[in-house]
């Protein structure tokens, strides 16, 4: 009987050799093309080419529309989850744990089912109203999700094996924390997306821009180290990245705010069975005259400027992306050092795993969501409608009368004989 | 480099547990069980044999806790809320302390402060959401409260982020893994302990009966399963808890269902238990006064033919709530114990006998509440799914904050729906 503690103890003694040797997953083509260059420039070129490739894929998906974006977000979420869970397996040598892989994927499925039911179902309200079985699923959604989760919980308890208790509890906790980080926030990303593609694009681009410009500023001007966790980061890079990102966000929002495609909330049209983005742009996206503060007047030479109100919000988003976003990166760096891994995985040559690219995005997604709900929009109309339709008929009638009198008061509804 | 990693190994929890592996479970446990029993009890019971003494201590403490429970119920919802809060803090403290002991992380910089800070943040978030819902008019009156409530989510998020950034800044070179473990440990504990204590408070506001019946069913199941096991127990139930038996499990199930039916019958007659707790703006206190809903009005039920011959009645007068109590008791007896098995597995995994030594003969607060956690979530989901729908006045409030075009859209959809159902028609002027 190998005692578990001894196994864990040995794990740390040979932890140095446990570090994954960096496997070179660079495609053959690239290698041959760049074989002439020195190692440092070669690395730079690989990173550069892959960066451009990822940005192109990003633009392509945007062009393809909201549905594809949702699928993309879902795929990334699943891949990130897989990467983090795999790290857990390796750390704890728990490949041979009974049931554990199935349970992790099962919990992922449950939590996704719960979130998709809560958020996406709201948007498909008219679609759902027509089908009886879907109505049942929606009405008792929370209960069904909870029952599914409980099944997983009971399976976990029944799967506890005498020699592996601690390991199993660790993996259980690891799974839950991972779910909390990756799944909840990918759903916040999707909710931001439904608010309007601009709320999805500007934050993500700001984080990417901050990454790139901080790197470039650090490359050329970097001298003072920023934090012990990430020795490559410098204060010059940090501050330079901050200013560039704010300017970038400002300009980028200006361009995006002009197109209905980006600005309008995504809606599902039940007749055409597609997502449409068509609306009367809200106040945020209508040009306004702003007086330039006297301080800047001297610098710029203008007295007023035409801007979209959204650009002011973009300053807040860019500021967060530059100042707080990096903490997500430091967290991930600390995590990698704690578990002695170089990268989360080797999916992207030169960059590491998907998690490596998305570590800063997670805090951003939550921030944007909280920002929108606090400062931009009120309650969600589709969700409100759904709740109204669940009420008892007598309650609905009372609500109807109250609403009608309110609307007539405000002059929104004209009082007429036949309504 | 190798030296650094070796020194990290020495401080890491894993290698320290090598010394624990030398001690067998139950032989020399890592947390010495101190004898907490008060001197008085010790002297009074000094003559009895050890087994009976233990039984008496447990029995007396059980009665003490049940009495305490009744007193608190008598004192009202406000005191109950405070008790739930205290229990939550104590459970959090117990679990975090176990984490400290497992990882020998007393000397981690900042960590105690951060754990308590996160507890504060999450509580602030949940209390803010609850308070905003139930104290709506009060909040709207006071200016500072109104601002706090309007930007509540943003403020909570900012507070949490501050804690997150402090954590990142507190990472120290040799202790990374330990700090991440404790971070994960804290968050899982918060998820379990804090969210569910708030669900309990939500249940409480729905009506005290939704708080008392589930908790009593779990306690009853505990006691009944123990007694049935004591007198009739033969077949072991699960390897995790060798003391549990199938006889105890099944006997406890039937006893709990019966107990739930009887308790609900008694409680449904009193308005103070069945009415939702509301905050009265004029008297600035909680009131439980209302027209009892359908659930709490006696109805005639036909007894199924099977039972008619046994019981001898054709119809019976029951509260509809009693039917729901069967569902609650069933859950408490069949699934609730899994919470207990989970806690047993946890204790075995970390080689501790009890969560703490707060209650003599019983262990820590967590030991008493481990089965309650799943129950609280179940009751909350049950109420949300089967009992109450959304709150109409709340919906109207939300409606009033929408834009005019959105309001019009919703109004028209609702109108079309009502016309469809035949509730409107030629009553356009109504």
From TrEMBL, chain A:
Pathway: Lipid metabolism; Phospholipid metabolism; CDP-diacylglycerol biosynthesis; CDP-diacylglycerol from sn-glycerol 3-phosphate: step 3/3. Keywords: Lipid biosynthesis, Lipid metabolism, Membrane, Nucleotidyltransferase, Phospholipid biosynthesis, Phospholipid metabolism, Transferase, Transmembrane, Transmembrane helix. It is a multi-pass membrane protein. One of its GO terms (biological process) is CDP-diacylglycerol biosynthetic process. It is found in: Membrane. It comes from the Eukaryota. The keyword Transferase applies. One of its GO terms (molecular function) is phosphatidate cytidylyltransferase activity. Belongs to the CDS family. This is Phosphatidate cytidylyltransferase. The gene is Cds1.
From TrEMBL, chain B:
The chain crosses the membrane at residues 110-127, 154-172, 179-201, 207-233, 245-267, 321-343. The lineage of its organism: Eukaryota, Metazoa, Chordata, Craniata, Vertebrata. The keyword Transmembrane helix applies. Pathway: Phospholipid metabolism; CDP-diacylglycerol biosynthesis; CDP-diacylglycerol from sn-glycerol 3-phosphate: step 3/3; Lipid metabolism. Residues 7-23 have a biased composition (Basic and acidic residues). GO terms for molecular function: phosphatidate cytidylyltransferase activity. It comes from Spheniscus mendiculus. This is Phosphatidate cytidylyltransferase. The keyword Nucleotidyltransferase applies.
């Amino acid at each position: 009987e190998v005692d578990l503690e001894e196994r864990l103890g040995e794990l740390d003694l040979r932890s140095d050799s446990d570090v994954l040797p960096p496997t070179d997953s660079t495609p053959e083509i690239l290698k041959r093309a760049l074989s002439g260059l020195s190692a440092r420039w070669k690395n730079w070129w690989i990173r550069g080419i892959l960066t451009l490739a990822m940005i192109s894929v990003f633009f392509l998906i945007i062009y393809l529309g909201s549905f594809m974006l949702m699928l993309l977000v879902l795929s990334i979420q699943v891949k990130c989850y897989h990467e983090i869970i795999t790290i857990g397996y390796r750390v704890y040598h728990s490949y041979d744990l009974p049931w554990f892989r199935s349970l992790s994927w099962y919990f992922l499925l449950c939590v996704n089912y719960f979130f998709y039911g809560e958020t996406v179902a709201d948007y498909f309200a008219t679609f759902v109203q027509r089908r009886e079985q879907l109505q049942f699923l929606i009405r008792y959604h929370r209960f069904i999700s909870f029952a599914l989760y409980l099944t997983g919980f009971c399976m976990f308890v029944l799967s506890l094996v005498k020699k592996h208790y601690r390991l199993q509890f660790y993996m259980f906790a690891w799974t839950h924390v991972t779910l909390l980080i990756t799944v909840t926030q990918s759903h916040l990303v999707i909710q931001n997306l439904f608010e309007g593609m601009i709320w999805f694009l500007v934050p993500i681009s700001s984080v990417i821009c901050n990454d790139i410009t901080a790197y470039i500023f650090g490359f050329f001007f970097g001298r003072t180290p920023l934090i012990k966790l990430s020795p490559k980061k410098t204060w010059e890079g940090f501050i330079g990245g901050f200013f560039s990102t704010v300017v970038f966000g400002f300009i980028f929002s200006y361009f995006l705010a002009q197109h209905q495609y980006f600005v309008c909330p995504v809606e599902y049209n039940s007749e055409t069975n597609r997502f449409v983005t068509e609306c009367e742009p809200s106040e945020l996206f209508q040009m306004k005259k702003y007086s330039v503060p006297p301080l800047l007047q001297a610098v710029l030479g203008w007295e007023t400027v035409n801007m979209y109100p959204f650009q002011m919000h973009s300053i807040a988003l860019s500021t967060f992306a530059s100042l707080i976003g990096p903490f997500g990166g430091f967290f991930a760096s600390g995590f990698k050092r704690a578990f002695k891994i170089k990268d989360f995985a080797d999916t992207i040559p030169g960059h590491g795993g998907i998690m490596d690219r998305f570590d800063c995005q997670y805090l951003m997604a939550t921030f944007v969501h909280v920002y929108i709900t606090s400062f931009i929009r009120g309650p969600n109309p589709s969700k409100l409608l759904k709740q109204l339709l669940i009420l008892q008929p007598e309650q609905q009638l009372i609500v109807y009368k109250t609403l009608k009198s309110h609307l007539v008061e405000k002059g929104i509804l004209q009082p007429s004989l036949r309504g | 480099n190798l030296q650094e990693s070796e020194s990290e190994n020495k401080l890491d929890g894993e290698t320290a547990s090598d010394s624990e592996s030398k001690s067998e479970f139950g032989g020399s446990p890592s947390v010495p069980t101190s004898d907490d029993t008060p001197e008085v009890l010790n002297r009074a019971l000094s003559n009895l044999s050890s087994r009976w003494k233990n039984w008496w201590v447990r029995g007396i403490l059980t009665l003490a806790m049940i009495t305490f429970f009744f007193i608190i119920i008598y004192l009202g919802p406000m005191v109950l809320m405070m008790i739930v809060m205290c229990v939550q803090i104590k459970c959090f403290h117990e679990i975090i302390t176990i984490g400290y002991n497992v990882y020998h992380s007393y000397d981690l910089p900042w960590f105690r402060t951060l754990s308590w800070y996160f507890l504060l943040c999450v509580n602030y978030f949940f209390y803010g959401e609850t308070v905003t819902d139930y104290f709506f008019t009060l909040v709207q009156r006071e200016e500072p409260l109104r601002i706090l409530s309007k930007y509540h989510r943003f403020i909570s998020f900012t507070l949490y982020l501050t804690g997150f950034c402090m954590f990142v800044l507190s990472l120290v070179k040799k202790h990374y893994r330990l700090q991440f473990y404790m971070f994960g440990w804290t968050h899982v504990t918060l998820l379990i302990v804090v969210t569910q204590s708030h669900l309990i408070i939500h249940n409480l506001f729905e009506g005290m009966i939704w708080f008392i019946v589930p908790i009593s069913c779990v306690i009853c199941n505990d006691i009944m399963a123990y007694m049935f096991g004591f007198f009739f127990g033969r077949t072991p139930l699960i390897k995790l808890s060798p003391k549990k038996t199938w006889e105890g499990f099944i006997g406890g199930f039937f006893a709990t269902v019966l107990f739930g039916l009887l308790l609900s019958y008694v409680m449904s007659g009193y308005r103070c238990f069945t009415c939702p707790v509301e905050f009265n703006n004029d008297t600035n206190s909680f009131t439980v006064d209302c027209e009892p809903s359908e659930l709490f009005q006696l109805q005639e039920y036909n007894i199924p033919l099977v039972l008619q011959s046994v019981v001898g009645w054709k119809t019976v007068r029951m509260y509809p709530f009693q039917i729901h109590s069967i569902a609650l008791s069933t859950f408490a007896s069949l699934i609730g114990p899994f919470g207990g098995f989970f806690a047993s597995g946890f204790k075995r995994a970390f080689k501790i006998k009890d969560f703490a030594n707060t209650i003599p003969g019983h262990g820590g607060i967590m030991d008493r509440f481990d089965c309650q956690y799943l129950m609280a979530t179940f009751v909350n989901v049950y109420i949300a799914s089967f009992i109450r729908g959304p709150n109409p006045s709340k919906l109207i409030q939300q409606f009033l904050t929408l834009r005019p075009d959105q309001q019009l859209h919703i109004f028209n959809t609702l109108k079309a729906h009502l016309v469809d159902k035949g509730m409107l028609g030629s009553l356009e002027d109504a």
